[in-house]
Amino acid sequence: MKIVVLAKQVPDTRNVGPDAMTPEGTVNRAALPAVFNPEDLNALEQALRLKEQFPGSTISVVTMGLPKSAEVIREALYRGADNGYVVTDRCLGGADTLATSYTLSQAIRKIGDFDIILGGRQAIDGDTAQVGPQIAEKLGLTQVTYAEEILSVGPENKKIVIKRHIDGGVETVEAPLPLVVTVNGSAAPCRPRNAKRVMKYKNATVAAERSAENADKYAALIEKKPFLNITQWGAADIDADLNQVGKAGSPTNVKAVQNIVFKAKDSRTMTASDADVEGLIIELLNEKIIG
Amino acid sequence: MNNVFVYCEIEGTTVADVSIELLTKGRKLANTLGVQLECICAGSGLEGVEKQVMKYGVDKVHVFDAEGLFPYTSNPHTALVVNLFKEEQPQICLMGATVIGRDLGPRVSSALFSGLTADCTELEIGDFDMTVGRDAEGKPVKKHFEQQLYQIRPAFGGNIVATIVNPEHRPQMATVRSGVMKAEVLDENYKGEVVKHDVAKYVPEAEYVVKVLDRHVEASKNNLKGAPIIVAGGYGMGSKEGFDMLFELAKVIHGEVGASRAAVDAGFCDHDLQIGQTGVTVRPKVYIACGISGAIQHVAGMKESGIIISINNDENAPINTIADYIINGTVEEVVPKLIKYYKKNSK
Fold first, then answer.
1. In this predicted model, what pLDDT tens digit does every residue of B204-244 receive, in sequence order?
2. B248 and B187, same structural domain?
3. Do B324 and A252 touch (CB under 8 A)?
4. Is residue B42 part of a domain?
5. Do A27 and B346 touch (CB under 8 A)?
6. Cβ within 8 Å, pair A130-B325
């Protein structure tokens, strides 16, 4: 099977410390480590399981972002992916989910041959869950969101059976290949890195990561081992319509951003003494707030 | 044309609470804009479904009733919403930020090239000026926009609140979680129109591509959402046994037990008791926070509570800044006293 995995490098918003926001109220990206979006790792695990089930399958990982987002490609190579693509270009910046899904769908069209596109349900920096379904719509494919487990795939009859989370329960659906599947955080966690693969791929880079000083070193490496060159695509490489990428292709605009500040209410503080607690209960009962 | 639309989510033949809440919000937005409120009900066996929604002030109910529209699958519902919207040109479309709304919304927005904001916590109408491009000399070109939908949502793990607008594309789409808006009957006898559509005209046969083989849905085991009194425990409860004390307090004062994410993650109680941005949103008359520090994500799910009582041995706990009553003390000491003195003084 030809498997495409969508991955995103995100600031880790799960454990934000007090320095996560600047005094001006903007996000202090430097204080937030960049990580592999957690649910994209769940998606990668589903891809790796398919590859085990169907030997000879290939897993291509696609990301859009700054050149340093090649880190997620390397991370995926360490865990068993076969190759990766970094879509990076100045004109892609400021994209909302619609422009992002257009760009990624163009990259997938360029890859061309695929049976299944897997991605995380949502990214922790936006929590929108929109890019997966929007890519499906742009490619004219159906989708299964909130997937928890791929139960069976029949490459011959081109059908896939998936268990998915729904509000208040679960359902099992059968869908035709090819399709887009977004994987929930409750799915199996991703396996760890494989030490041999780390050795093999640790020098894999995209062109934009290489500097003038080390260009020769990498050129020599790539000549011997072509798999160390991670494909880098700009907007022109994926035949992107510039009106549909970046800020220009984004219908949504951020009008205002406001830092969260708790404003202290008029409150009454009391001790845990019997008198204070009983006094509170009596007050609440008298005012018919409880009882 | 240019009306406010709500996509009603339907389980079996029952319209979901979140959709009803959005009808009330949609009615208010429509009043502000001076337009009508319309809604979409799509499913199977929907005879009389309008009775569930009309009283919230719906002017027109679009009914799509056909085999294959329940259980929900992505393609047929996308097709009927997209094709209806091409005819009706709504200016606003609201959906629940549920599994269904978050599956359908992005597909519809992609097909119509319209902006969609997920998980809004507030929706307002307003006017503003915005830069829409640059002129020949590179100076920003400003344009004035009136009566736009402000889509307000927490972002970045709840550390900021962003106001999103999409002035140049229609419809302006937003999803909202269950419990965030409040349902209010407008008029029991509200008279709107019912339009029964020919589903085949909107949904080509080829769209029925996904088959639901098996489905299990359980009604929620607790009544957190509607509870007037909630006793919620956090990581400070210390253990599963510590939570037993809260169940006892809740029973005595006729409340329900809730929890913070930290308590759920620590295994002190079931996941379905979680209150907050990734759990249930509640607005009880009284909220008793026991050993809850008050992370922003938790506060987002309970800040609309009438009276907030915080029991915490850390006087600097963030939750104390939004509490009406703060009891400085350990939960082990205070909770049994609340039980004791309630029993002594009630009735």
1. 999 999 999 999 987 767 788 878 899 999 999 999 999 99
2. no
3. no
4. yes
5. no
6. no
